[in-house]
Amino acid sequence: MGDQKESLRKITHTLALKNEEISNFVCALKQSLENLEANANRVQEELESEFTSLYSVLDEMKENMMTRIKQERAGRTYELQSQLSAGSKALESSEELLELANQTLCSSETDGFTQAAKDIKDSVTMAPAFRLSLKAKASDNMSHLMVDFSQERSMLQGLKFLPVPATPEIQISDCQVCDNTITVVWTLPEPDGKIDHYILEHRRTNHEGPPRIREDYPWMVVEGIRETEHTLRGLRFDTRYMTFRVKACNKAVAGEFSEPVTLETHAFSFKLDYSSSHQNLKVEDMNVEWDGSGGKPQDIRKEKNRTNSPMHSPARSALMSPKRAPTARPGRDRFTAESYTVLADTMIDAGQQYWEVRFDKESKAFAVGVALRSLGRFDQLGKSGASWCIHLNNWLQQSLTAKHNNKARTLDCPIPNSIGVFVNYEEGVLSFYNAKTKQLMHTFKTKFQQPVIPAFMVWNGSFSVVTGLQVPSVVHSSQRRNSTSSSNASLT
Fold it and tell me: Which UniProt keywords apply (predicted)?
């Protein structure tokens, strides 16, 4: 009986899932029908609008051309009518003179004939008929204003719906991820001269493969791309992957998005562990400021009691690598006395990692490096075998030193505004760089027996940490060049 009930429960569960699946499908179909109706009405209205616009253009052209014909006809009519009026008057005058001449010739009187003949001669000389041009000032030919619409008619008859652009395909093998930049490359199935631009969308994710139905991060849009590739620069890789999709657009319509492609964006990301910090350090996100008052007690209690800290948030949990874990300090209080120290919340026990720290060069003291989890609450960075660091001293005179196990080496290099820290755990390499120029400042060569943690110290100053950074290419190259050098490896 129990087995039958269990079997029936499984069948019921399966049926319920299938019903939910069918219900979702039915809802999707109904939504598609509504979308179809709306989209059909939209494109119909747009088509009517385009034809109305075309009619308006044709009507305007017709009106302009008709006006040109009317103006041409009026001008020529005026010229010809003026000539006609002048010719009629000249003809009338000429006929009168002719009649007078005939009468004089037929007259039998001889006394006045000589004077009459002279008067007729003078009148003929001054007659308008002899000063009139007998060439028309305007032509009656209007053929130069005829229009051949055969080509335009053929073009109009060739009007058809603009084809939807083909779907691009992202070429994973040509995409590049390095130096916190991503170059995405795509192609079209065949050349399309009507493509105006592309739209690229991307979003961060902690999942490999196609996007999930529900993602924690929204799509970010890049519009107006004219080429078949695009580079995103200055990224912070605080998730394990980024997903991309692209679509092509012509002047009127956009095509379908390409199949999403997910690229791995491996980088070292961490937060600062407030619970480890000295009480005189004011820790806000990735910024730290020395506070001689020790902070307000209520602020400290608030920080201790908050439940949405980075250590416990879902986003933080999703970022955890299988080889990295939080750096809880069970059974230990925060750093105290003159150890103005704060640790990261994530340890390093494998791979090559890189981060940067920007600090106030006017700080009385500042240090950055790594430490073992066994670092004591009274231990200052670089003054025990459990920590390695670069230390800035701003007392009587400014100095920059590399410190480990209470040994120090003065560094002969300009003090930068920010320092890049590189760790190669397997090789036991800890290097410090000028973050802007990537100039190598110092390298520790050792053998890490335990996981290490990013560590920071400041007194009478401030600093901010930048994570989510890949190991820069120039740092990789520098490490290869200096792999056989031991000039910077005396403090081990």
Answer: Cell cycle, Cell division, Coiled coil, Cytoplasm, Cytoskeleton, Microtubule, Mitosis, Nucleus
Whole-model pTM over 0.70 = no
Please answer whether residues 245 and 258 qualify as being in contact, where contact means their C-beta atoms are separated by less than 8 angstroms: yes
User: Rounded to an integer, what distance in angstroms lies between the CA atom of residue 356 and that of residue 469?
Assistant: 8
Cβ contacts of 163 within 8 Å, gap of 6 or more: 194
Read off the tokens for 180.
């916190």
d(CA 100, CA 191): 90
Q: Which of 63, 81, 67 is nearest to 140 (CA)?
A: 81
Which is it for strands 287-290 and 281-284: parallel, antiparallel or unpaired? antiparallel
Residue 366 has pLDDT above 90, yes or no: yes
With b for 16 or more beta-carbon neighbours within 10 A and e for fewer, the 264-299 pattern comes to ebebbbbbbbbbbbbbbbbbeebebbbeeeebeeee
Identify the H or E element spanning 298: helix 297-305
CATH architecture under which domain 169-265 falls:
Sandwich (2.60)
Domain 341-483 part of CATH 2.60.120.920? yes
- How far apart CA 476 and CA 144 sit, in angstroms, is 76
Q: Give me the pLDDT at residue 313, please.
A: 34
What is the residue extent of each domain of the chain?
1-158, 169-265, 341-483
